[in-house]
Amino acid sequence: MQKLGGETWDAVVVGGGPSGATAAADLARAGHRVLLLDRAGRIKPCGGAIPPICVREFGIPDSQIVARATGARIVSPSDKEADMPIEGGYVGMVDREHFDEWLRARAATLGAVRVDGVFEAVERDPDGVAVVRFVPKGASEAVRLRTRAVVGADGAKSQVARQCVKGWERIRYVFAYHEIVEVPEGHDQSRCDVFYQGKASPDFYAWIFPHGRTASIGTGSAQKGFGQRAAITALRAATGMDGMRTVRREGAPIPMRPMKKWDNGRDVVLAGDAAGVVAPASGEGIYYAMLGGRLAAEAVVALHQTGDVRSLGLARKRFMKAHGRVFWILGIMQAFWYSSDKRRESFVKLCRDKDIQRLTWEAYMNKALARRDPMAHVRIFFKDLAHLVGLARA
Question: pTM value?
Answer without folding.
Answer: 0.91
